[in-house]
Amino acid sequence: MQTPDPTSRRRSTWAASVRALLRSFLILSCGLWASLPLQPAFAEILAPLEPFKVVEHGSGNTWTYVTLRDGDIGILQLEDVRAGDFTSVVSLLQRHSEWTGVDHDLEFEVLSLSSRDVRFVQLVHGIYVSGHSVFVRFEEDGTVTRLQSAIVHPAAVTDLPSILERDAVEIGKQALRNSLGRSDAEVRMIENPDRIGLEGWDREPTLFLDTHGLNDPPSFFWRLLVGGGGDLRQVLVDAHSGESRVTPKRPYY
After folding, report:
1. Which tens digit of pLDDT belongs to each residue from 119-154?
2. Residue 208 near residue 129, CB atoms below 8 Å
3. CB 62 within 8 A of CB 211
4. Are 55 and 70 in contact (CB under 8 A)?
5. DSSP secondary structure string, 89-116?
């Protein structure tokens, strides 16, 4: 039987001791590291890239939309807003121009205002923009907690409507007759929508600006409220082509 080499035995014992020492060092180091606060350099790396959450965003040559929430979005001057001064709203949009696409003055009209939120409809050259608005939710002190905007870039609006109001009215009346299937039906423009439970409607035909894809050129249409033959309908008339569409009687924003 062969006798073990004492030198080999000492070498094996030494290697085992080194492995045990390294294992203990690693365990101790990990424990100390975990108990230490993050150093500034690492804290910066792990911090959010934006001071708020971007829920959705899309941008094109014609219009831009975005929803921001939960963070340092901004503050509204509530007294000014309630008095009809929307400077702080435009400033808010301009502050986040990277997301809103707003780097210019805008024209607004209030659709609704409560103690916690406000909604505006956009106007371009005094014309309502269909489906495009700004919604802001805020705290008592005006701190904004949510901002939703869908803004048309005024520079994208170059063509003017070619169908005049009086022509749009006649087209709208004929469209309702066609919808009723009665070419001789007596139809009329509704002069006082408030009396029939349609508060918020304009008493006259209203011209709107309409948009489709983010890069599609905007177009104009007339909105009319027409009654006749026991029916009451909203008629939309394309202000370029004169094509008409009869829709349910509801405000079109």
Report:
1. 988 888 888 888 788 999 999 999 999 999 999 988
2. yes
3. yes
4. no
5. HHHHHHHTHHHH---S--EEEEEEE-SS
Domains located in the chain, CATH noted: 53-156 (3.30.310), 165-247 (no CATH)
Closest to 138 in 3D by CA, of 158, 157, 117, 155: 117
- For position 196, what pLDDT does the model report? 45
Contacts 24+ apart (CB under 8 A), 95-104: 96/66, 96/68, 96/147, 99/54, 99/57, 99/64, 99/66, 99/68, 100/64, 100/66, 100/149, 100/151, 101/59, 101/63, 101/64, 101/151, 101/153, 102/64, 102/149, 102/151, 104/154
User: What rounded mean pLDDT belongs to the chain?
Assistant: 77
Q: Residue 154: which H helix or E strand, with range?
A: none
Within 8 A by CB and 6+ apart from 26, the residues are none
